[in-house]
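Students often ask why we bother predicting the structure of a whole assembly rather than each chain alone. The short answer is interfaces. A chain on its own may look different once its partners are present, and contacts between molecules only exist in the joint model. In this exercise we take two input lines together and write out one structure for the complete complex. Read the inputs first and try to guess which parts will touch.
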Amino acid sequence: MWRVREFFMRLFSAAFSGRAERELDRELAAHRALAAQDFARRGVPDHEARRLANRHIGPVDLVKEQHRDARSFRLLDDLARDLRYAGRMIRRAPGVSIITVASLALGISANTIAFSLVDSLIARTLPVPRPAELVNLRERWPDSKPHAETPTWEYLGLRDGMAGTLTIAAVAVLDRSNITLATPSDAHVDGGRARVAIVSGNYFPMLQMPATIGRTLGPDDDRTPGGHPVVVLSDAYWTSRLDRSPDVLNDTLAINGTTFSIVGVMPRGFSGDFVGRPVDFWATTMMQGPIMPEAPTSLTKPNDYWLRLVGRLTPGVTSAQADAAIQPVYQHVMRDAEGAAPSPDALAFIRRSRIELVSAAHGYAPELETRTPLFSILTIISALVLVVVCANVAGLLLSRAGARRREFAVRLAIGADARRLARQLFVEGILLAILGGASGLLLAMWGMGTMARLLASGPVKVFWAQSSWFTFDVALNWRGLLFTAGVSLAAGFIFAMAPVIQAWRVSLAPALSGRAPTDRASSWFGMSQGLVVMQVALTLVVIVAAALLVRTLVRLQTRDLGFDRRNLLLVWAQPTATGRQGAALIALWRETQAALSTLPGVASASTGNAELLNGNAPNPGPPQALLRIDGQAPRVTTAPGWRRFIQPDYFKTLGVRMLRGREFTERDTALSPPVVIINETFARFYFGDEDPVGRRVSLSARPGAPVEIVGVVNDFVDGTPRGGGARPMIAYLPYGSFADARQLVIMCIGVRTLADPRSVEAPIREALRRVDPSLPVLKIDTVSEQLDDVLVQERLLARLTGFFGGVASLLACLGLYGLVAHMTARRTAEIAVRMALGATRGRVLMMTLRDGARLAVAGILIGVPAAVAISRTLRSQLFGVGPYDPATIGASMTLMLAIAFVAAWLPARRAARIDPMTALRGE
Amino acid sequence: MANKADRLELLQGTLDLIVMRGLATMGPQHAYALAARLAQIADHPFPLNQGTLYASLVRLEQRGWITGEWRQTESNREAKYYALTRSGRRALDVQNERWRRLTGFLDKLLLGEA
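Now the answer. The structure tokens for the assembled complex follow.
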């Protein structure tokens, strides 16, 4: 028991040694007084008595040291003193300390945020048993990016073919409105806008996820189309809409008029496997019709790519084995679907296609995957900036230690322990690191929220079988904290060791071994110069990266899109939520055009189902003859063949040039002769320089009777401003020309205004509300706003690298300045002599500037190859500039030299102002 | 003049024991009196390095075996008087017993053979 008490008392005493020291002083004073009294009583004269009394005690420092050793822990005690001393040193130079801590905070917070981003990608696993067994399936066609959605027949074929090896389930996540919940007492709750997941019957058994209330959906709920009106709620939805009512199993949920019974509630924390899109409730694929009235036959239609496949490996089967097993099954399924006489092109296409299996332990996160390059660039840049910061701080500590070398010499001479001095220097550096790390942590917490918001924004994607908005969940967790602490201490260790190493080599080690400490100030500089050169090199790397990314952004923002972007608004609406179909859907389009084009301030309005500037890149597709001319052999192409439904005046509204022919009119309906407008690429491929207007052709985009080409329109940017890749061949069809209006579920309304587009925004919303109040208007954007959304990643990268480039430049400038100033101060005598011997001020100026230039040039020589090497990793992000762009590199080098010039200017001027007389006299 | 060799090199534990015994028999004492009294008993001037004495006192205080209190001496100077606590007395008994056993054992070992 007494051991515990002693331990804590010693700990306390180590931290608060002031009290104990004062108490001891008091006791020793009393001791001396009593001893002197004693001696005096024995007849010793007064001053002798006092001397003897002092001797009685002995060397006071020794007494104090022994006292301290007994009452506290030596190491802690020393550490506490070192920390207090370091704190005083830091307070003594507040300006420099603030800059140092601030730059450390910036560097460390950047790395923490980058770490958390990567962590959010790889760390969060799904809350299901053995998530490592889950895989996402994707289909990859030749020369294309893989896609996740497949038609029903493909899902069924793969599922049956892989039974026993890989249990494959299917899921589609969509956004719906028009939902009401009803309790048995007939109270109605607005279900609002919800996210529903349509899943195959084996989805929940495959995930092995039980419900907390009631049951989950199973194969028995997935047998007959429309015959299983049951849903399972998520815990979050049950909480927000039904207040966690225990009676939930007696409640019902109605979508678009169809009523479903609620049969279960899932556990808290489970919201499906689609990262960033938490599901509100689940239903089975057999209920696809009632839930998706705008596309009631997706379940059976062979061309509807609406189901995403996810599976669980049978225990004992590895992902590689499943991958090998699934390819032949896939080939078989695809060939079967081609029918009795598949064309050799189709067979070749199928042979080159495959299924890819990707781990789904962390769920399905396509947005995060596309952002991976962003994350890796951020990680690299953050690391570089932190190294620059460390080099800067190390240089600072070195110069401070260098200035104190006389103090060290004196302290060593009077008996200080060299190791103790080294430890003191070290603690100073570590304290800075701790302060920097703590501030960096705070900065990171603030920055994280902003980053999450920026990353979650993006262009509106209005797939008809997929949910659009998503949330990006990145937060600082214990792993991030640990990382921050680790990075701070590691950084602190590195820059704290610099002065220690130097001090050791120059003063302390010689003193320990008995020799006199050398005063070789020059040796302090070797390290400092190396540090500054390194800062310059790394700063150059960051500047080059920033320059490349900024140029990319500017090029993307200003490139000619092929249409007139002034005074143009893009209105995004989601008619699927209204439940309209067929003729009602066509009527919706007609009414919106009528309502909007008559608004004051609007020149014209026209809707198309193209998602303009949504970021989609054209992918090559299966080889097909998009167009067949009677009497000629069909020409096959793998260029992406797109089909767009548009209203009259579409191109006039967008400001796209009609090269030949005319636009559609209201007379082009389902009953009139079928017509088509094709784009320039399409026309050129099939007709060369001939005029296609008036020709009748068979169009794969519009099966059935031959179609007359009535116009050719200029190519314009439809999906992503990056362009590149294959140019799509687009066939434009009149919106009223299909009785089955399923393609009209995407509404992107172009509105050309007479004046400021923003002033028309509210009237547009009002007009649309009057047409159909249940039509959700997702967004109204000008073209630049839409571009900004598409280019979120590019903008983020440009801004961040630009910012860090600025920070690194500032630090490099300060580092250079400090070093050049120091070097100049040391050479004061030499300069004075030179001037006395006739050197002009100009020559002295040049001399100093040359000093700075030498350091800068060394840094640049190292930095350029490094910059080129690192810029290669940026290649996928660049547009309009290559990673070796000489103009960019040249400009960056010039900028670096300019920074070096600025840094060296002040010391150079001071050197030139040296008065040789006073300088030499002062020596 | 006592030199270094004359200073009794005492083990940490034994000094603690001596101090506690001294306080037990003499009652509350201040450090100087303790040192003087011990010198008297040992019949040796300055036998103690004062540093070790103060170290011992603070150690015993931290263990809760003695407490210190500032009082006035007879000659009206202030001094810190140390006294054994109850747990100190118990610890003293334990240490005494241990010491007796140790010395008995050593006696037997070193002298018994003779």
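Check your guess against this: The beta strands of chain B are 29-30, 66-72, 78-84.
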